[in-house]
Design goal:
Number of strands: 12
Number of helices: 12
Strand content: 15-25%
Bound molecules: nicotinamide-adenine-dinucleotide, 2-amino-3-ketobutyric acid
Structural class: alpha/beta
Helix content: 40-55%
Largest sheet: 7 strands, parallel
Distance between the termini: 40 Å
């Protein structure tokens, strides 16, 4: 009954993964850590620690003190921020992962590594991208994700570390804001549609990318980590996604519920070129076959749930 360590726990995924792990395994078994200070408004209960994943001694001390048996390593700089700060991105994304894998090797921990559609590049077949495809990304974020997948495979093969990963698409969620990625437009569009009935999108209207709703990502993460290891053909990392959408299609779906919502475009060339180097859609058959990946939300059901949850958050009247 060793404990679970989550790094980068205050981010978009961690804000929902930590409560899900607490519910699944018990609040006293989850150590939520981040380099940021825990905000005061966070619900009481659970274990929160300061941890910088670029500092190996901090990770080893945490692994010893809490008898850690599994690490969900979420700490990273996302694609747009990484492109602004490539050196910091290498330091956090690569050195941080290496430090986590070393701690896992020494303490015999299981590891979860979130890779990304960013691990693919412009030479990858963009439609229904196969599980095994050419990976020559042109962003520093993508370079760290491909190298991360390979490093995880190396630690699994060479040292027997049970490390598993997902190639996540853009994640849409309402609990915590996204941390500076290219797919953030989708969450921003929901927030601004409800607040101002208007959004200026930083990607072109027809930019097609794979996406998934956060509850499906959280379920997939826990399912993969609990799956029979003998059935996993790929480990690092499985393609997962639930929809393939453009800003124009998302806006049209939102407009079904917010008819006056207006969309215009102020294209950011950096994020547009990142998006254009990524797949449009993923082949997720390996995840479905090996460990039963089965997302529940499509564009319509995700949009309805997002608007309901965000509406309830911003206006108590809607929640009643
Ligand atoms: P996020 O940016 O919202 O959160 C990352 C967290 O890491 C932040 O709370 C930040 O404070 C923390 N962090 C940064 N540097 C750190 C350090 N040195 N030590 C410890 N913590 C540090 O990111 P997210 O969206 O929650 O993503 C989590 C992981 O999932 C990342 O590896 C990301 O690449 C991957 N991923 C996310 C998405 C997505 O759409 N959200 C898609 C694909 C992959
Ligand atoms: C980003 O846009 O950087 C992330 C991702 C898809 O990895 N959301």
């Amino acid at each position: 009954m060793r404990r679970i360590l989550v790094t980068g726990a205050l981010g978009q995924i961690g804000s929902e993964l930590v409560p899900a792990l607490q519910q699944h395994y018990g609040a006293d078994r989850v150590v939520a850590s981040d380099v940021r200070i825990v905000p005061q408004q966070l619900p009481a209960g659970g274990i929160h620690e300061h941890l910088d994943c670029t500092q190996p001694q901090q990770i080893l001390e945490m692994a010893r003190r809490y008898e850690i048996g599994a690490i969900y390593h979420l700490a990273a700089l996302l694609s747009a921020v990484a492109e602004e700060k490539p050196h910091a991105a290498w330091n956090v994304n690569m050195d941080g992962l290496y430090n986590i894998l070393e701690a896992a090797r020494q303490h015999r921990c299981q590891v979860f590594f979130p890779s990304s559609i960013g691990a693919f590049g412009p030479s990858t077949p963009p439609d229904h991208t196969p599980q095994t495809a050419i990976q020559r990304p042109t962003t520093i974020y993508g370079v760290t994700k491909v190298a991360g997948e390979l490093l995880c495979d190396y630690y699994a093969g060479r040292f027997g570390v049970d490390v598993r990963g997902l190639r996540l698409p853009g994640l849409i969620s309402y609990v915590a804001p996204p941390g500076g990625g290219t797919t953030d437009y989708a969450v921003e569009m929901f927030l601004q549609a409800l607040r101002y009935k208007h959004y200026s999108c930083f990607l072109k209207p027809d930019t097609r990318l794979p996406m998934m709703y956060m509850p499906d990502a959280i379920r997939a993460t826990i399912e993969l980590m609990e799956a029979d290891g003998g059935r996993l053909r790929y480990r690092n990392a499985y393609n997962v996604a639930a929809m393939s959408i453009t800003p124009a299609e998302l806006a049209a779906e939102i407009r079904k519920h917010v008819p006056s919502f207006a969309l215009d475009f102020r294209v950011d060339p950096v994020r547009q070129s990142i998006a254009e180097s990524w797949p449009h859609s993923l082949d997720t058959s390996a995840a479905r076959e090996d460990w039963g990946f089965a997302p529940q939300f499509d564009l319509a059901s995700m949009t309805l749930d997002m608007l309901t949850r965000l509406g309830a958050k911003s206006s108590p009247a809607v929640a009643e």
